[in-house]
Amino acid sequence: MGILSGTRVIELADWVAGPFCSSVLSDFGAEVIRIDLPGQVVNTRRLHGMEPIDDERSPFFATFAHDKKSITLDVRTERGRSLFLDLIARSDVLIAGFRPGAMAAWNLDETVLEAANPGLITLNISGYGQTGPWREKPGLDRVAQAFASATYITGHADGPPVKAGVGYVDYATGLWGIVGILLALIERQGSGLGQSIDQSLYESALPFLCEVPLKYHRYHEIAERLGNRVKGVSPGDAFLTADKRWVQISASGDTQFHRLAAAMGQPSLLAEPRFATMPLRDENNAELIGAIAQWVAAHTAQEVEDLLEQHGVAAGRIQNIEELMAHPQVVAREDFITIDDDVFGELLLPNVLPRLTRTPGRIERPGPRLGEHTEEILGGLLDIPDEELTALRQAGVV
User: Which domain holds residue 301?
Assistant: First the structure.
């Protein structure tokens, strides 16, 4: 029994943000019912080009949609809409991932949903939000990164803008959605009323811009690409070791810089007037980075890590996924777990976050086949007779 046991979530969303949001809710006990169109294998089920495809699932979907239930239902039809509203009346949360206006076109706007269930909490995920002149534009993760200025400041100064290596905006949107849903559930305990959450992809990236907007507002400074550098934080960069490994070192504060100089056996760095303060180190960053790079290049990655750890300097080698998963820290904390699938066999996925001591989350079963739980939900929860389910299936409603 998880913290959210007794909470029913309807997932009516494709791609990553909405389904990730509901996956985390399911980790902590929520019953998540995913709605798919009859006979259609949507993007989420085929993401990341992973083969083999089990007609309706990729290995990624089998892990990504863990512990959910799947029904097929065409909410665009009159009977499908009616059944959907019956489900809404028995649910707590709806996660919808469409451009603004799509739900209204199916006669499922906020007024209709609220009439079916005044306590419903609806998370609306879209590229640019439910209001504004760009509200109806399509949006995906990499486009949201670009719109939010994140891509513009990512990459080396002499190179093109680069998106992040993973779709962090999608996952950030899912996390903001979780925050909104949990806050709304808490508020509903007092008011008894639901509410809508308007979460856009691009806005999910804005808090990650850190000081960039403030600096522009105060100093009219437009942040540019700096590679591994962070302006105002020096020294900090990636350095190549004698055994051709990259190590990330961050020693920006005065105390950290003193420790770095001691670890390098170069106290003379502290006597350099141009390195005396953080602003000066930032101003003379190229010379300082050059000195550190020369020292790192004379040592192996293990030697660099050991020396810097002994002196309390934050540093670590840049790991690929194989190294990450084999690392003793990751193994000790069981950061990755496996589940068994009857088609794909053993599948690996990240363990549940956040870590709670008394009421931890759990992952038990792989993502469902298309419509795997249609009879259970429509027949059991909504009391639809078998003969009607057969007729609905023949009509393409389920």
Answer: 236-240+246-317
